[in-house]
Amino acid sequence: MPTFLSDSERSVAAAIAGLSDTNPFLPGRIDLEREALTDRFVGTGDVWRVEATLDGLNPNLRALTAAVEQLVPKLRDRLRGGARATAAELELYEALVRYLLYQRYETTWFALIERGEAGRSTTTAVSAYTRFAHDVDDLLGFAPSEAGGPALPVATDPEHLFAWGFQIRRAFYHTFRRIYGGSLPAARLRAAVWQSVFTHDPRRYRRVLFERMNDLPTLIVGESGTGKELVARAIGLSRWVPFDAEARCFREDYAKLFHPLNIAALPAPLVESELFGHKRGAFTGALADRSGWLETCTERGAVFLDEIGELPAEIQIKLLRVLETRGYNRLGETQERRFLGKIVAATNRDLEAEMQAGRFREDLYFRLCADQIRTPTLREQLRDLPGDLEELVAMAARRIVGEAEADAVADQAAAWIRENLGSEYPWPGNVRELEQCVRSFLVRREYRPRSASGESGGADGWLDRARAGELDADALLSAYCTWIYARTGSYEGAARRLGLDRRTVKAKLDPELLEQLAGSPSSD
């Protein structure tokens, strides 16, 4: 009876099978590629950097794909010829087939992502699925168990595999292309996002968890300006979307599955209405029935609650009910509705301190924190890799001026930052402040950090004057109201944090100080 795998084939197969299920943003990927390719391996460093791989991605992919293209048909023919394979060997074979299918149809899935990015529907018919289904049948459409051997280890229906491939491609795109930086803190953040989507065990995810991730909320914590919404968006746009084999299309448009709500920017009644919806006449101005995000969000979607630390106590209770029972009511009605999607929340507040102060419910926190991601500060990223400054400035320049002028602006801005702010500047506003710095440089060829804005400029300036006893009560209230408003970005959010009426906050704002604080973070 023919041997299914030689020793050398087993070594290559095990490494590539490992790659098919590994977190691509962890260093273990490098070791597996080296094992699979031996002397053909091309070293690229432990961290995939956007600027280094934007055109060709991983330079080892071509060699890996070629190796799988050669190995898989051989193994298929051996199985069909009667070779006896163990259950572990069949698991290796199935993983190799998945790897091969992903590489063959990656461009098909990427074309759908480009449609979504352009605001076009991603539920159109996918003609390539016919070829994909044929390939699945050719490579997996037989049963070794019929010849007395073990069965293939997982379900191999083509629509499931097609949906899996599209999810992998989306998750890689939105994680890799939106979370910048070559530092280890940035790499760990990308790896954490990937794990939030697929968990630490992709095999279990494919078997059962792909339909159960709604029950696991994600809490993103970190300073303002560290990209918490980018993380939430990457998770929300990487959700499982089933494929309809008969219609040859995905059942939902992935680009419409992310529903963000900035709690700090809205008054409490409006937050409640936006989240839960309302019945006509539920409050003044409610002229018609309205669906909230919980109702609009489908089973495959995600509702993002930004600045959840600002959520009023009475709404915290209602959100806890949603997380525990999936039930909720629109404002002004008794009919119970069910939320089917996933909750992703973010905050720049210290929720431990908020719980101790009685402003945030402990039971709600424990419902949210099972899957927790912390976004690193810009200080941490640059401490690990100072050269990341140029890369991050270049990314900001591309967004601000476009590709044609980006390199020139980035070179000039980075040189100015090195010369005038120095390598030890702490970037209190994180990436958002860095982008503000590039904008300011573009207009005025300079940037004035808030702590260097003059006698009363920025947070440090007015705090120093307050400590020195140079501000009377009215000036102190005005400065503090302005500072809180600059951080929350709304009168309502500032009023809730200060315990004042929004009209008082508006009346107390200091326009000059507010302009000086423009470069500081408001909210994620």
Structural class: alpha/beta
Average residue pLDDT: 87
Helix content: 40-55%
Largest sheet entry:
5 strands, parallel
Structure report:
With 524 residues, this protein is an alpha/beta fold. It folds into 4 domains: 7-173, no CATH class; 228-376, Rossmann fold, CATH 3.40.50; 379-447; 458-519. The protein is built from 24 helices and 11 strands. It has helices at 7-21, 28-37, 50-53, 61-80, 87-117, 129-140, 158-176, 184-198, 202-207, 228-236, 268-276, 293-296, 313-325, 351-356, 362-368, 378-384, 388-401, 403-420, 430-444, 458-467, 473-488, 491-498, 502-508, 511-516; strands at 218-221, 243-244, 249-250, 258-262, 277-278, 290-291, 302-306, 327-329, 336-338, 342-347, 371-374. The strands form 4 sheets. A 5-stranded parallel beta sheet has the order 4-7-10-1-11, with helices on both faces. A two-stranded antiparallel ribbon has the order 2-3. A two-stranded antiparallel ribbon has the order 5-6. A hairpin with a 6-residue loop joins strand 8 and strand 9. Helix 17 (388-401) packs across helix 19 (430-444). It starts with 6 loop residues before the first helix and ends in an 8-residue tail after the last helix.
